[in-house]
Specification:
The complex is a heterodimer. Chain A is mainly alpha-helical. Chain A has six helices and six strands; from the N terminus they run H-H-H-E-E-E-E-E-E-H-H-H. Chain A is 64% helix and 5% strand. The model of chain A has no long low-confidence stretch (mean pLDDT 91). The longest helix of chain B has 62 residues. In chain B, helix 1 runs antiparallel to helix 12. In chain B, the strands form six sheets. Chain B has a four-stranded antiparallel beta sheet, covered by helices on one side. Among the domains of chain B are: 108 residues, no CATH class; 201 residues, no CATH class. In chain B, a hairpin with a 2-residue loop joins strand 5 and strand 6. In chain B, 51% of the residues lie in helices and 11% in strands. The chains are: A mainly alpha, B alpha+beta.
């Protein structure tokens, strides 16, 4: 008699536990919430880890994309500046303009140069984009040794990259966007702007009537003032040389940088779609392994409830049945 | 002659009435104890009454007497029941602790676990590679690193606490074992004395059986009944805990006599107790005999708790040399902590050429100089530069003096400073966001020129998330695995342990019910049967009464004839 009641009671207890478990499953939406709930707990933990990583990578991609977008707009504008500078140079090279007109036109060239320097010194979230690792200082600043001729004014300012030769200025940054893809997110400013700024400086100075030495490479601040009309031909030649330099800067620095940026963005897009696919798959598998099938759980719940009622009825009737009632 | 017969009839009827009353009284006792735990049904055996006054002629018989009392108990069924009880209590004790262990390895993503903390930490490092000088991102790295440290140390400490809790419970169980065995020995005495006179000491036996059952909730043992009615209780290795009226008192001690140089530490740095018997009864210098492993192999609460808590040979020195689920899990957590302290910190010192070995940033200064620098251009100040641990001993943390963190350095501290675990002591070595060494010192020979936006060291460090490392603590070894691999393996391990014990638990529940059913079918009071017997003997009693009346009528008839 005691045992019958114990067996029935243990059944009732089990059914109650089952109901509680199913209730929890349905309310949390998870059939596995503790390691012991599944034989695949290790795998579930691994998938959760993968999802967490994907979340982080997607954030990285989004940050990197905005940063690269910003750089793209800077480089596009730099390209426009060079196009405009070439127009002015072509106009100035025309020998219908005398040295006085050329000198007047030089003002716009220096404005364009300053604009280009401003672009090269752009900040993103408070940091100089083209400063390399040395991003708390503007990459381009007027050199402490300006052009000797003229002694003052825009034509005397010699902009140079990283004058104090900080080794960090040429360090690039790489960002991990998936387990296997790492993307460089910045370019040291000298690789994009050095030739362009120098070309504009040579052009502006030539139009203003000053030679810039050495004849090729990075200007060192020397260069005498020309005397007109004797040096008019020299000036025209210098302007024509500057046009070549402008073309070279565009073709070898600015446009390749545009291509590089576009390539990086494409890689980010690829990474993003890989991650998206992987996230979808992981979610799907995880849902199968860990998620509650609500329909199944609900029907098991109602089955368990019915069983519990039946057991309770049997328990109450079974315990009352003794021969005593029939005596 | 007629009077003689009447007397005989009366006499027989009276013996019958007396016997039947006793039987009915016995039935009433059985019914009264129908629900008494451990009560074994009594049966009164009726026998033909034999008298010495044997007359001549035909033997008619002298009525009935209650010959003996049988207590319905079967040694085999009781043994099966005891074993089922031991199994169930062992499974329950283990399940209780494993369930709490499981809570530390949440799979719902709502708690800060070691796995989620590690993922978020590497995520924050990834974030810092975008803008290494950003103090907000640096603070984020510190926060996430603190989460890692907290998750590791709190998980480890919880596991260590569960081990000590199990230890404490074992101690309590041992003391209740001692009181149970004393009681059993006392009852042995009573039963021995009572049954020497030929009677069955049924109530004492009930009580003893009940106590033996209670004892089987604590541990596994064999019961052997002696001819004098006493029982001996013996452990699996032959050690007797109760012989006749003597109960051997067990002790729970952290200073057993066989551990001449002390016992190894527990996970928390305390000492685990050993269940021993002291053969030196004089008590001057204990001569302990270790029963821990024997009891661990058995069942009951003590067996179950010992299995989870683990036992450690006294010749071992590390807490991780012990066995048991808790130690297995703690070893894994500790291995994660030690790899963070060694491999991660090592790379953190700065590896400019990316060969996986930190570079000597300044070869002109004696000793190894880290090449990684913080936001102010300062090199990493401590060998354990990113993840550190609480420590104030005299031994140098860099025991081999090579300027780099290594397992050898940790082992040196374990040996010389009695450090049990690093997981429990883990803390962040970096105290403010600027101190995170994200950059490399490019020109150590020249005056320090540092680049705040340099994140090359962090770019190296994020690779640690994917790096295949060798993890090993105690008996746990997992080679070519990442940090998260070890964590996920741990989750799987805990899951398997939990699933295994749940299964054992439900099987042992069923076994116990079956064993109880079989035992009760044989020994327990069946009310239906008792009521039927009651009717039967009531009828018999009425018949005997009728016989008396018949004898009386016969006498009356004879008297009236006279």
């Amino acid at each position: 008699m005691r045992v019958i009641s114990e067996i029935l009671l243990s059944q009732v207890n089990r059914q109650r536990e089952e109901i509680a478990r199913l209730g929890k499953e349905i309310s949390t939406g998870l059939k596995v919430s503790r390691p012991g709930d599944s034989k695949q707990s290790g795998t579930i933990a691994e998938f959760r880890d993968t999802l967490e990583k994907i979340k982080g990578f997607r954030e990285q991609i989004s940050n990197a994309t905005s940063f690269l977008n910003y750089q793209e707009s800077i480089v596009n504008e730099a390209n426009q500046i060079m196009i405009r500078a070439k127009e002015i140079a072509t106009q100035a090279a025309n020998e219908t303009n005398d040295s006085v007109v050329r000198s007047q036109m030089a003002q716009e060239v220096f404005e364009l140069r300053d604009h280009l320097v401003n672009l090269a010194n752009s900040k993103y979230l408070g940091r100089y984009v083209y400063g390399g690792a040395n991003d708390d200082e503007p990459p381009y600043a007027p050199n402490s040794t300006p052009y000797t001729n003229p002694a003052s004014g825009a034509a005397s300012v010699r902009y140079t990259f990283n004058e104090d030769a900080d080794p960090g200025a040429t360090v690039t940054r790489s960002v991990r966007v998936t387990d296997s893809i790492t993307i460089t997110v910045n370019t040291p400013g000298n690789q994009v702007f050095d030739n362009a700024i120098q070309a504009l400086e040579r052009l502006g100075r030539a139009m203003a009537g000053y030679e810039t030495l050495p004849a090729s490479g990075t200007p060192d601040g020397t260069g005498a003032a020309w005397t007109f009309p004797q040096d008019y031909q020299t000036q025209t030649k210098a302007i024509q040389n500057a046009i070549d330099l402008i073309d070279t800067a565009r073709e070898q620095d600015i446009m390749p940088e545009q291509v590089k940026l576009a390539g990086r963005m494409r890689r980010l897009e690829t990474a993003s779609s890989i991650l998206e696919l992987s996230e979808e798959n992981t979610n799907e598998i995880l849902d199968k392994m860990q998620g509650t099938d609500v329909f199944d759980a609900s029907s098991r719940l109602s089955y368990a409830q019915t069983s519990l009622q039946a057991s309770l009825t049997v328990l109450s009737r079974g315990l009352g049945n003794t021969i005593l009632e029939y005596l | 002659m007629g009077a003689n017969f009447s007397a005989k009839i009366l006499n027989n009827a009276v013996t019958a009435i007396q016997a039947q009353q006793q039987v009915i009284a016995n039935i009433s006792n059985n019914i009264a104890n129908a629900d008494t735990e451990g009560y074994a049904k009594r049966i009164l055996n009726l026998e033909t009454r034999v008298t010495s006054n044997r007359g001549t002629g035909i033997e008619i018989g002298n009525g009935v007497v209650v010959g003996s009392l049988t207590r319905k108990s079967d040694e085999f069924l009781e043994k099966v029941l005891r074993e089922a009880i031991s199994d169930k209590y062992s499974a329950d004790a283990q399940s209780d602790i494993i369930t709490r262990l499981e809570n530390l390895f949440d799979l719902t993503g709502t708690q800060n676990t070691i796995g989620s903390a590690l993922s978020s930490f590497f995520e924050s490092l990834d974030g810092l590679t975008m803008d290494p000088a950003n103090l907000e991102l640096r603070s984020e790295v510190m926060e996430r690193a603190t989460d890692v440290v907290t998750a590791i140390s709190s998980t480890y400490n919880e596991v260590a606490q569960l081990q000590m809790e199990a230890d404490k419970r074992i101690e309590l169980e041992v003391s209740s074992v001692n009181s149970l065995t004393s009681e059993i020995a006392k009852l042995n005495g009573l039963i021995g004395t009572a049954e020497a006179t030929g009677h069955v000491a049924a109530s004492e036996r009930d009580k003893r059986e009940e106590l033996i059952k209670q004892l089987s909730e604590k541990m596994s043992f064999d019961v052997r009944e002696n001819s004098d009615g006493t029982v001996d209780l013996t452990l699996a290795d032959g050690f007797t805990i109760v012989t006749g009226t003597t109960a051997r008192q067990l002790e729970f001690t952290t200073t057993p006599s066989f551990a001449t140089t002390g016992v190894p530490p527990s996970l928390s740095g305390d000492r685990l107790g050993y269940i021993v018997y002291d053969y030196d009864t004089s008590g001057s210098s204990p001569a302990h005999f270790d029963l821990s492993d024997t009891l661990k192999a058995g069942g009951g609460t003590i067996g179950g708790l010992l299995k989870v808590r683990g036992t450690n040979a006294v010749t071992n020195t590390s807490a991780f040399d012990a066995d048991g689920t808790l130690v297995e899990v703690a070893s894994r957590v500790e291995s994660i902590a030690r790899e963070l302290l060694t491999s991660f910190n090592d790379l953190y010192l700065g590896d400019t050429d990316g060969d996986g070995v930190p570079d000597d940033g300044d070869s002109t200064t004696a000793g190894f100089q880290p090449s990684a620098v913080d936001l102010d251009g300062n090199p990493v100040a401590n060998v354990f530069g990113f993840f550190g641990f609480q420590y104030s001993g005299a031994t140098a943390v860099d025991g081999d003096g090579d300027g780099r963190p290594s397992t050898a350095d940790l082992n040196n501290l374990i040996t010389n400073e009695n450090i049990v675990s690093f997981a429990s002591r883990m803390q962040l070595a970096v105290s403010n966001p600027r101190e995170i060494a994200a950059a490399f010192n490019d020109d150590p020979a020249a005056p320090v020129v540092y680049s705040p936006g340099d994140g090359r060291n962090i770019e190296n460090l994020v690779q640690m998330q994917q790096k295949q490392l060798n993890f090993s603590v105690g008996s746990f070894t997992l080679n070519n695995a990442t940090f998260n691999d070890v964590y996920n393996e741990t989750v799987g391990h805990v899951g398997n342990a939990s699933a295994r014990i749940s299964l054992t638990q439900s099987v042992s529940d069923d076994n116990l019910l079956v064993a109880k059913e079989r035992r009760d079918n044989f020994s327990a009071v069946n009310l239906d049967k008792e009521f039927t017997d009651l009717i039967q003997f009531q009828r018999a009693f009425q018949a005997s009464a009728r016989v008396i009346r018949t004898a009386n009528d016969l006498s009356d008839l004879i008297v009236s004839i006279i």
